[in-house]
Amino acid sequence: MAAHGTLLRGSMKQIILHIDMNSYFASVEQQANPFLRGKPIGVTGKKHTRSVVAAASTEAKRLGVKTAMSTWEARGICPSLLLVEGDPKKYSDITARFLKIFHAYTPNVEQFSIDEAFLDVTGEAEDFLGAVIMAKSIKEDLRTECGEWITCSIGIAPNKLLAKMASRHQKPDGITVVKEKDIPAFLSLSRLEDVCGIGPRILRRLNALGIYTFAHLQKTSKTTLIQEFKQYGTWLWLVALGEDGEPVEAIDDPPKSMGHSYTVPRDLTSPRDMKRVLLALADRVAWRLRRDGYVAFGVAGHIRYNDFSHAGGSERFHHPIEEGGILARLCWNIIERHRHPDKPVRLIGVTAIMLQPKNAQSSLLSGDQKIQKLFCALDHLQRVFGPRSWTRASLIHTRFKERSSGFHYDHDL
Amino acid sequence: MYESYDDPINILVEFVGNCVQPREFVWSNRLYTVDQVNLVHTTQEGEKCYIFFSVSNATNMFKLRFDPSALEWRLMELYCAGA
Questions:
Q1: Among all residues of chain A, which has the CA nearest to that of B83?
Q2: Are residues A147 and B38, on separate chains, in Cβ contact within 8 Å?
């Protein structure tokens, strides 16, 4: 297979916007509290210990603080850093508001994370000038609806790949346009790690092949990339051209799994304490399954030790699972097979896998029917009075702190 | 830094269009004026909805919570500048 001869091929007529909120959680906190504005702040999950910086303000980033840095490391780099405990419900509400703004411009909105979205505005904007006017208008609406401190960077390009790369070019509060004719120049100015999908591991493997820049990638044959990266090689070959065939998906795919994990405030050594945390997590997963009308035919469990090594596994089952107690028991059996008995545990996670829509027919066994009726009543209670309306007696002393990161905050949990 | 409370307050609000703007409130027998409403957000707990107002004056930021079903206002959070 020949190396890339030209950078442009095919017809690329789409106009895609990638909107990335700047230092999102930190900006929301600075919007809410003017005394934090202009200061280096880090939004954390749990303020003092065992936490990471979920978002750093622009000022903190300038001083070297990075997202996902541990709080002690961040304080070491920036002693003046103000740590602010995150408020996930607040961020979730603001996310819903900016998504509503985006939907006013086009129905083709794909939420990519809590602070990013793709918009396909091909029909609405008509051309790139129209897209720039639309981007400016979205920024203005955002300022009016959410406040002047909550800003975004917008990338405008013929596909999602380039739009996402473009939005990183001017931060904060920028608009970057990459038209078809600009693609070669834009790629030559970009780094391979700017591409969503080229992480540190892929980058190391590319470097090992002598590929450090887009120019190197463009000179590499498709065959070589496929030999080295299998299917991923085809994607990398398209990346080198600045091409991306992925459409903006306005509707979410049905979930393949549902899971929760939790970093405990203190390392756990007793299986009884681990089982309690696991049961509380499993109850949350099971509630989501029932609420969204799914059952699981598999369970995965994992733990992280205090030395950051981890263990876990998964198993398939023939019977549908939708109850927290059963989920926890099956998950514990998996964890127990892999767990080192002497190592303290800092994180526990449970995931319901192999999800299928729930069949309306209820079980014929009277014991199962009783349990189903019980959870039907408890679910009703939770829908009306919220997540703290009931708990198991064994979990009365098991409390979770709210997270400030994550794809989507769920108010029902 | 931030201090958490869950105290009832008496409040004076202004209706501007279809928005509610807190203007001043009494907490622990002291009157506090509101210079700015910085952010309003809502949360849902079961069927219950709460509206939070992050407001400030020259020296403090307050997070106030309004419960529309009970028509009750509470002070939830206080941030003193320079504290």
A1: A35
A2: yes
